[in-house]
What does this fold into?
Amino acid sequence: MNGVPLVYFIGLAVILFSLGAAGVLIRKNALVVFMSLELMFNAANLLFITFANHYQSLDGQILVIFVLATAAAEVAVGLALMVAIFKSKRSIDVDQMNSLKG
Amino acid sequence: MTTEFILFAIVALTAISAAAAMLLSRNAVYSALFLILNFLAVAVFYLTLGAPFIALAQITVYAGAIMILFLFVIMLLGAEKLKELDPVKWQRPAAIIITLLLAAEGTYAAFGKLDKTLVTKPFTGTLADPVSIGTVLFDKYALPFEITSVILLVAVIGAVVLSKAEKKEGEK
It folds into this structure.
């Protein structure tokens, strides 16, 4: 995709990140909140790749690999937490998670 | 209106509408499927920006592994639909205002300062094939790579401990 202005990609990443942030703030289903987090990761990755292209350097692409690995770890722990919370509360509505004691 | 621009517009529209549909779906399974569509659209961008390895890693790791895990947990818990109770009335308008502020700030940062004549170019530096990515990863980024392995190990142990502790309590 040669010749597309860089600002278009940055604008797209801004839109995707904002949609992810809106999802975290609006949705009540904890799993959808998690998916919105993934969307924000994705927007950040798109920026990394865009600037890797701009600077003609592989460093941005390597950073995306680290973000992928960290996101995988985060999802594994997060979903285990979801299952544990569901077992004790019988719901994964984020508004129900208002006490520290299970 | 070059071919590149038309391709960009189509894929960007797909990505944005998939993200919006994920946000608005009542059913969490539909949300997960729309998010997979969004990941695929972004993978197309990676391909065209000269990152074929990352594009395919995105498809296998995100769309293949992470989202399947999401779908598995959604169906395991039967959490497709929640009764959307609304204890905090001003939450939705406040969230929309905050998001718009964030978007405005990002737009200002992107379009206010940056040189608008910059365009993406064919990736000519080191070609982003698996060999050169591996060389950089194991040479310049060897220490972060090792730390990543520790993070993954901790995540595995955390997931095991979290699902084990609940079982013990149930047995007592």
Q: What stands out?
A: The first helix of chain B runs from residue 3 to 24. The radius of gyration of chain B is 21 Å. Chain B touches chain A through 93 residues (CB under 8 Å). Chain B has six helices and no strands.
